[in-house]
Amino acid sequence: MNKKNVLIFPCGSEIGLEINKALANDIHFEMYGASSLADHGKFVYKNYIEGIPFVDDENFICKIKEVCTKFNIDFIIPAHDSVVLKLAQHKDEFGKVEIITSLIETCEIARSKKKTYEALKDIIITPKVYDIKNSNIDFPVFIKPDVGQGSKGAKKINNQKELENAYDENNDIIISELLPGEEYTIDCFTNSKGKLLFAKGRIRKRINNGIAVNTTPVDNPEFEKIAQKINSKLKFRGMWFFQLKRNNDDRLSLLEIAPRIAGTMGLYRRLGVNFVLLALYDAMGYEVEIIENKFNLEIDRALYTSCKHNIDYKTVYIDFDDTIINQNGVNTDVIKFLYQAKNENKEIVLITKHEKDVKETLGQYLLNEKLFDKIIHIDKSQEKYAFMDKNNSIFIDDSYIERKKVLDNLSVPVFGIDAIDTLFDEKK
Description:
Elements: E1 4-9, H1 14-23, E2 29-35, H2 41-44, E3 48-50, H3 60-70, E4 75-78, H4 81-89, E5 98-99, H5 104-111, H6 113-120, E6 129-130, E7 141-145, E8 155-157, H7 160-169, E9 173-177, E10 183-190, E11 196-208, E12 211-218, H8 221-233, E13 238-246, E14 252-258, H9 266-269, H10 275-283, E15 299-300, E16 315-318, E17 325-326, E18 329-330, H11 332-343, E19 347-352, H12 358-364, E20 374-377, E21 393-396, H13 400-410, E22 414-415
Parallel strand pairs: 1-2, 1-4, 2-3, 4-5, 16-19, 16-21, 19-20, 21-22
Antiparallel strand pairs: 6-9, 7-8, 7-9, 10-11, 10-13, 11-12, 12-15, 13-14, 17-18
Helix pairs in contact: 4-5, 5-6
């Protein structure tokens, strides 16, 4: 199969970052990440395109088409609800470039909670919805924008006065009964024939800005029954998900639907269900099957750091004791960096005061001495900087004293083990 080019927009969203992880190591696809503003995408996408107009800009479609032509894009994966709808509405303008999402009618219904509830109220439980003019509203209620995502603009309303104030701020809200119970997301996949191949739930244990940052799988046969009903009413293609919450009667009520990947679908990806790859292969006409591991899994998400530096180095000098190896064995973060350096054709020099035969110790830890272009084994009385070339070099050592001596004498960048991730290149 010839390598296919995939455009992800906006690539720096949580959705875009999950797509990056899903495709990062697949040899059949080349990713192109695009964004309107500088975002985290530039730290993880090797092919990064900045300055795309916002989705509601009149030049948005034209610019996306230009990018597709310039980079020979085969597929576009929208990574935001508004982008899903916009690209679905203009799908016919992209020629052979395929938009990875569902039919336009489904996207339009899913983008509006009012339309979603109206379309599905006869086949599944949906929240009771009130009109602002209704004098019999059963407070407290819950309001959220009819068109929106995450938790933005969503809040509990306790009385009529609070409701009127909220309505004055935004009259395009939906007023629904308050659902007090547990909240679940059901991740789904529907193939090109409209068959639902996967529908499994996960509980949203902890939520931050509308994103599930702690989640575990939940096995409930009712999830698939509800998914089958939704799938029979709306025409999906590829990955999609919906959210449920228990009402006052402890019954599962629909919150919303989205015909796209969710950022926390990484839970099932780690169990073997790569929704992005499945969607791409399905779009290419392949018969896809799903395998799923059955081990227990909990994922927890938090802010993490990616670094960008301006160090131009050709040689890595690195210590051995308490650096490459430590009390727990081999330091896998260090090994990750060393192989990255090797892939980039950097020279790697092991410089050590190891008390034993260093090659023998390398063998004990199953480390190949050929990983190093040179091994400099010196006496404890000797100074490491005396054996180093300061030109285009960096130095890695757990010892503060050793780092200070090298920095003072050679003025090259020095790194402790705590800072080695500064050197990681995470672009895929």
